[in-house]
């Protein structure tokens, strides 16, 4: 089922926010209560990895093709920039928190993906991994909204031209 109004999709998007919070809490729980600990030390700033880190950070914000649709569906458009600043700030805080926890838990051996460092036999790790698998479901409708709108508009225009054309 496709939802046309983005205000209804906001509830689905909230599921993605909850899922991200669950993942963060599971990683925190793994480090604090399941014996992994936050004890690794090492080089805090590795300048050779800075371009890669900035690339990952920038990539995380480039897939927001739904922002124009979100803006057009808002009742109070003056709140748009406030929503952007808050959501991007919270996302940045989440990225930094996960990065710091990963570094403190695994040091130089931290993997590029969260799931690669999680142990397979801990319940918090299993919850985090299954939640990561669910997240794309919450994002799919938001990301595909502009594509579907464009296809529908073009098909409807084409269909009306064919139907209204005299024989």
Automatic annotation (TrEMBL):
Transmembrane ranges?
12-32, 52-71, 83-107, 127-148
Q: How does it sit in the membrane?
A: Multi-pass membrane protein
Q: Where in the cell is it found?
A: Membrane
Main localization is membrane
Q: Which domain of life is it from?
A: Eukaryota
- Tell me if Transmembrane helix is a UniProt keyword of this record: yes
Ranges for domain Amino acid transporter transmembrane: 3-156
UniProt xrefs under InterPro entries: AA_transpt_TM (IPR013057)
Query: Keywords assigned by UniProt?
Result: Amino-acid transport, Membrane, Transmembrane, Transmembrane helix, Transport
Q: Which Pfam families match?
A: Aa_trans (PF01490)
The UniProt entry, under PANTHER family, shows: AMINO ACID TRANSPORTER, AMINO ACID TRANSPORTER TRANSMEMBRANE DOMAIN-CONTAINING PROTEIN
What name appears for this protein in its UniProt entry?
A: Amino acid transporter AVT1I-like
UniProt organism field: Ziziphus jujuba
Cite the source lineage.
Eukaryota, Viridiplantae, Streptophyta, Embryophyta, Tracheophyta
Q: Per UniProt, what is the name of the gene that codes for the protein in this document?
A: LOC132799794
């Amino acid at each position: 089922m496709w939802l046309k109004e983005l205000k209804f999709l906001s509830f689905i998007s909230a599921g993605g926010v909850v899922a991200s919070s669950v993942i963060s809490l599971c990683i925190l729980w793994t480090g604090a209560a399941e014996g992994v600990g936050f004890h690794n030390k090492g080089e805090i700033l590795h300048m050779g990895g800075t371009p890669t880190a900035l690339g990952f950070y920038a990539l995380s914000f480039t897939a927001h093709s739904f922002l124009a649709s979100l803006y057009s569906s808002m009742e109070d458009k003056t709140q748009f920039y406030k929503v952007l600043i808050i959501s991007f700030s919270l996302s940045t805080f989440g990225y930094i928190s996960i990065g710091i926890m990963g570094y403190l838990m695994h040091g130089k051996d931290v993997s590029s993906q969260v799931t690669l460092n999680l142990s397979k036999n801990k319940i918090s790790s299993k919850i985090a991994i299954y939640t990561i698998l669910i997240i794309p479901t919450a994002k799919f409708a938001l990301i595909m909204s502009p594509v579907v709108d464009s296809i529908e508009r073009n098909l409807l225009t084409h269909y009306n031209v064919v139907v209204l054309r005299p024989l």
